[in-house]
Amino acid sequence: MELEEIIENYGEYLYHLSYLYVKDCQLAEEITQDVLMKYMINRTNFRGDSSIKTYLTRILINCCHDKLRKLKRKTMLSQLMFFRKNEPSIEKMYVQKEVYKTLKDSVLALPLHYREVIILFYYEEFEVKEIAKLLNVSPNTIRTRLRRARELLKTNDSLEEMYAALGGEFYEGV
After folding, report:
1. Predicted confidence band at 73 (pLDDT cuts at 50, 70, 90)?
2. From CA 22, how far away is CA 44, in angstroms rounded?
3. Cα distance between the two ends of the chain
4. 10: burial class by Cβ within 10 Å (0-12, 13-18, 19+)?
């Protein structure tokens, strides 16, 4: 089937379905384009065991899940940073800078196996499965290390003090 036919027959369906998943028009358009591009690149892999609509829907669902995971991770990361309200005072900017430095120092002070998963997951935005492959361990091990690293960061007294100094503007669920 040619791309024009696919777009004509399934384009609107794919867009609406992706919008139901992500609730964002631009993101839904991007996902729809990604799905069509993936289909065109890998159309030789389509075995015909199901209809094209079913195949495209499966690709779309996977793309939506990937995008939502990345958005969730970026949201978490942005919460690690500071929220700006109009013009912060110089004192508040200094405290925020200190909090960021303390957070950075706290992450760097973690044992290597915890530090590497935090950096790969939050800063480099790798997925758990990708990190597991990189480190040659199981995905469950990565999830456990992430959980334990977060717990270690939560119990850091200097982070707690900085959190209190900011009046709760720093994400406490690191």
Report:
1. confident
2. 28
3. 48
4. buried
Rounded CA separation 41/6 (Å)? 14
Helix, strand or coil for residue 47? Answer: coil
- Is 174:159 a contact under the CB 8 Å cutoff? yes
Whole-angstrom distance, CA of residue 81 vs CA of residue 85: 13
Q: pTM here? A: 0.45
Give the whole-angstrom CA distance, residue 165 versus residue 92: 9
Do residues 66 and 119 make contact, with C-beta atoms less than 8 angstroms apart?
no
Q: In this structure, which amino acid lies at residue 122?
A: Y
In this structure, of 63-67, 90-94, 98-102, 163-167, the range with the lowest mean pLDDT score is: 163-167
Tens digits of per-residue pLDDT, 30-52?
Answer: 999 999 999 988 888 888 787 88
Q: What is the pLDDT of residue 51?
A: 83
Which residue is associated with the tokens 């024009």?
4
Q: How far apart are CA 72 and CA 102, in angstroms?
A: 24
